[in-house]
Amino acid sequence: MKLTKKAEYGLRAIINLGIAQELGRNRVSVADLAYADNLPMKFLEQILILLRDSGYVDTQRGKNGGYYLKKDPRTVKMGDLVRLLDGPLAPIACASQTAYEPCSCADEDHCGLRMLMIDVRNAISNILDRYTLADVVEVTLRKIRRNGVEHYFMKERGKAPGNGTIRQAVKDEGFLAELLLNKK
Q1: pTM (2 decimals)?
Q2: What is the 3-state secondary structure (H, E, C) of 84-140?
């Protein structure tokens, strides 16, 4: 199984929303979500709209607005998010439970490839459906703290003098951008 960029970016964003929430940051702008993981903002906006329309996140407009988790992270299964963003977990359609399509095999019931792919689907599903968003956030924060590193949402970042942001003021990533981000 290989995640599409849509699923990868969507999972990164929702995990970061969970981390931000755990750190006391109630709302996160699309710009901050994109900046935190170097994600393309326009594409991320489309993904967040899908997550909003599906009830996982919501938005609030205004000065302190942004995206936030709408569902309790303890109830959000990672498998459900992957299925929403990427579709069925099965590597081939004849092994899918949710999007089954017959294959070209002459004897589907005795097809070795199909039986193997059903086992692959089940293994992937069992892992993704075992973990919640809260589990992933907890493990991520635990490792960040254990390693003594600082996550993007652990500090006030991205604010430039005036009303702009450093992302707007500094177009290049690298030393200069990092230097400006760390100045207060």
Answers
A1: 0.78
A2: HHHCCCCCCHHHCCCCCCCCCCCCHHHCHHHHHHHHHHHHHHHHHHHCEHHHHHHHH
